[in-house]
Amino acid sequence: MPDSIDPRVYFAAERTLLAWLRTGLALVGLGFVVARFGLFLRMIRGQVNATPHFGSTIIGVGLVVLGAIAIALAAWQHVRFCRELKPADLPRNYVLSWSTWFAATIAAIGLALAGYLLATC
Questions:
Q1: Are 16 and 78 in contact (CB under 8 A)?
Q2: Which pLDDT tens digit goes with each residue over 53-112?
Q3: pTM higher than 0.85, yes or no?
Q4: Which of 30, 47, 72, 78 is the most exposed, having the fewest neighbouring CB atoms within 10 Å of its CB?
Q5: Distances from the Cα of 34 to the Cαs of 5, 54, 108, 115, in angstroms?
Q6: Which residues contact residue 90 at a Cβ distance below 8 angstroms, ignoring those fewer than 6 apart?
Q7: Which residues, in sequence order, are CB contacts of 17 under 8 Å at separation 6+?
Q8: 58 with 75: CB under 8 angstroms?
Q9: Domain residues for 59?
């Protein structure tokens, strides 16, 4: 393989995107748990018709939105970086946009989850 052709640059960028995707998903999951934790505590106390606690809901929704924003920004940075790569640094016969679309979809689902959590509080 000639020195000028090195797809490792692209794969390193994709690993970075996936690391941010994992971080964002962890924040979204943690946010969901925090948002529903107030409801769980009220149910444990035996309150009839328990509703979620507004404070835990706001903190949880904030974490979900933060995770979704982290994923969206990582996808945007990935696209910007890949546009600047030389064609020789891109792998042949590889779908370059799949990881970006996947990250954007996860970010949109995270924002929809935040809206759902706010609507049900």
A1: yes
A2: 788 889 999 999 999 999 999 999 999 998 888 887 888 888 878 999 999 999 999 999
A3: no
A4: 47
A5: 47, 11, 20, 15
A6: 7, 10, 82, 96
A7: 74, 75, 77, 78, 99, 100, 103
A8: no
A9: 21-119
* Domain assignment of residue 16, yes or no: no
Unique residue bearing structure tokens 């982290």: 70
Rg (CA), the chain: 20
Q: Note the pLDDT tens digit of each residue in 2-57.
A: 556 677 888 899 999 999 999 999 999 999 999 888 777 777 777 666 666 788 88
34 and 87 in contact (C-beta within 8 Å)? no
Residue with tokens 């490792």: 8
* pLDDT tens string 92-109: 888 878 999 999 999 999
Is residue 14 included in any domain, yes or no?
no
Task: Give the CA dihedral 105, 111, 117, 119, nearest 10 degrees.
Answer: -110
The answer to whether the beta carbons of residues 12 and 84 sit under 8 Å apart is no
Tokens of 22: 């994992």
Structure tokens at 24: 């964002």
